[in-house]
């Protein structure tokens, strides 16, 4: 069991990426590295809690002397000695460097050799804790609408404000069938903000084209639609996106790595709007996708374990698909979303 820091810490360990051979580029991008039979770079992302310091490098503390911390996005990699290192990422998903050009790392309890299951997280709960608010995500040419279900009188969501803390070895994402047949699940009511976010995520254009279970991984074709939607939320005035930005956004949306998305996007993605450019390790996005399906939430049920919920909704504009069941997880991978979609079944 991992023992993590107390204040607002998020630690995510992902399924170890399956092997997929790819040629590695040399620095000039024109020659093939002689170590061509290496597994494509593992994209293991997460969040670590670090102490906040002032301009003099001194730790910032609260009135009670408790040190202030903040979350930073990291990528976990193995160093030459086989030790797991957490490298801090910037807003573009690239590794940050200090003024001397050295990559910035932070302490971590993660061991990539021991990440065969999902995650363990610890957080400190507090009634007066403030959270950062972001604009509710919307789809291209679609206005945000009020939730179709009632808002609780208290105005608060029934979801826990913090991620449940359990031993990561016991953290198992249920299948749709297991969730539906669970006798312990209980109906809950999200507040209008959470409902709208879940609705928006299920309305990602063409998300209805694939089903998936967490244990089987995310279909590449499905990931391309989520990648476009997440990239649109970045609000960047560009058609070229750093590969780290896209890969990290997918990690946030699905709560797991989309295995070898870079090497499979062009061949299996079935989407001309987004293409991986190997030469400079970027994604080229020519257009975002217009709204397609609409979703009306009918029921949300808590299914326990690590803050998982079963969502049942009616669907329109998705061809012959009229219903969707999804397993979502409450987490802090993306503060503007607050959820990841762990499984989908359209019918």
Fold and architecture overview:
The protein is an alpha+beta fold and 347 residues long. The protein contains 5 helices and 14 strands. It has helices spanning 176-181, 192-202, 220-234, 243-254, 261-268; strands spanning 21-22, 38-39, 44-51, 69-78, 84-88, 105-106, 186-188, 240-242, 274-277, 282-285, 294-304, 308-318, 321-330, 339-346. The strands form 4 sheets. The chain has a 5-stranded antiparallel beta sheet. Strands 3-4-5-6 form a 4-stranded antiparallel beta sheet, with no helix packed on it. A hairpin with an 8-residue loop joins strand 13 and strand 14 (339-346). Helix 3 (220-234) packs across helix 4 and helix 3 crosses helix 5 (261-268). Mean pLDDT is 74; it is low at 1-43 and 114-157.
Question: How would you summarize this macromolecular structure in one to three sentences?
Answer:
The protein has 347 residues and is an alpha+beta fold.
Arithmetic mean pLDDT: 74
Strand content: 15-25%
> Helix segment count?
5
Low-confidence stretches are 1-43, 114-157
Largest sheet: 5 strands, antiparallel
**H and E string:** EEEEEEHEHHEHHEEEEEE
* Ends apart, CA distance between termini: 38 Å
Number of strands: 14
- Work out the radius of gyration: 20 Å
Outline type: globular
Percent range for helical residues?
10-25%
In order across it, which strands form the biggest sheet? 7-11-12-13-14
Class by alpha and beta content: alpha+beta
